[in-house]
Amino acid sequence: MGAVVLLAVMVTAFVGCKALLDLSGAAQVKGVWMGSTTLPCTYTPSEGFTQQTLTWSMERDLSTSTIFRRDSSGDHILLSRFRNRVSVPKSSPGDASLHITDLEIPDSGHYTCQVIWRSENYSLVTKEVTTMVKVAKVAVTKPVIVAGELGLAVPVGAKASLTCVAQGSPPITYRWFRAVPGRSGQLLGSEAELVWNSLQPSNVGMYYCEVQNRVNTGIVQRSDAVELTVRDLPVTTDAHRPATDLPEAAVTSENAVGYPETDETTQSSQRTHLYLIILIAVLGGAVVFLVIFAIACTRKPKNVLPFLFRIHL
Q1: Helix, strand, coil % in the chain, rounded to nearest 5
Q2: pLDDT tens column, 177-195
Q3: Residues in Cβ contact with 270 at an 8 Å cutoff, skipping those fewer than 6 apart
């Protein structure tokens, strides 16, 4: 009975590990000619299992070729036309996705991601997932103008920008224009973004962009025009100027009874003068008192001797 239970536990653990090691991918991916795309292939790493090999292969016209292989010796790109165009993340465990750049029409086909893991007892587990890739030439779409962080009403002197956003097969060429009434637009630049480092009132106007790519050569897509305005910075008038902006001598306040308060230095000076006056008055009074006392002590009363004489008789 114990052996049966142990066997059941081992089988359950093995099945659980296999479930954890299932690959996740996409059934179909659409790529844009001359663009880039990523074919997803991911799994959840499981303790006790180590990725031994990873291969990406492509099937086209009933022929299968290995594009990419990763093993203990490193990464290898085995199909020459994919050299310098494909890569797989190295520092993300569980991520075996294939990134392809500069897509070409012949890149369309079925791509298979295969991963082989080795367990601690050296048994192997193999899983794979297949994705169909379709690469197509895409004509450029009508562009949309996106304003910078400050929007279309920008303070004078601030930095402003307008970005021309369009979708389609690269490379996409851009041209910026400023509308001129009664004439063709004024050409301003050939980048996707139009930038002013210090916007001025003279920059106010209507702006639009044009785009095109190699698909349907000669067809130009134009955006709707947007109006860029410049707003002045708020001006502080004397009537609304804070009290601290006034000259220092004019900054006063009123106390509870409506009299202007002097500053701390003036109040201190007044207190010092008052103390001096009181001190002088006290000293003057003391001097007068001493003088009177001294005079009184030096003078003898006239009736002292007769009074003493009468007493002895």
Answers
A1: 25, 35, 35
A2: 999 988 999 999 999 999 9
A3: 262
* Separation of alpha carbons 293 and 187, rounded Å: 108
107 in helix, strand or coil? helix
Q: What is the pLDDT of residues 142-184, one digit of tens each?
A: 999 999 999 999 999 999 999 999 999 989 999 999 999 889 9
| Tokens 């993340």 sit on residue | 89
| Nearest alpha carbon to residue 75 among 58, 53, 92 | 53
Q: In terms of Cα–Cα distance, which of 117, 115, 87 is closest to 100? A: 87
Distance CA 76, CA 214 (A): 33
What is the tens place of the pLDDT at every residue in 22-64?
999 999 999 999 999 999 999 999 989 999 999 999 998 889 9
Q: Which long-range contacts (CB under 8 A, 24 or more apart) does 213-220 make?
A: 213/139, 213/140, 213/168, 213/169, 213/170, 213/171, 213/172, 213/173, 214/34, 214/137, 214/169, 214/171, 215/33, 215/137, 215/138, 215/139, 215/140, 215/168, 215/169, 216/139, 219/139
Contact 127, 43 (CB under 8 A): yes
Q: H or E stretch including 65? A: strand 63-71
Confidence at 231, pLDDT banded by 50, 70, 90: confident
Between the two ends of the chain, the Cα-to-Cα distance in Å is: 153
Helices within 21-75 (DSSP H only):
none
Distance CA 188, CA 190 (A): 7
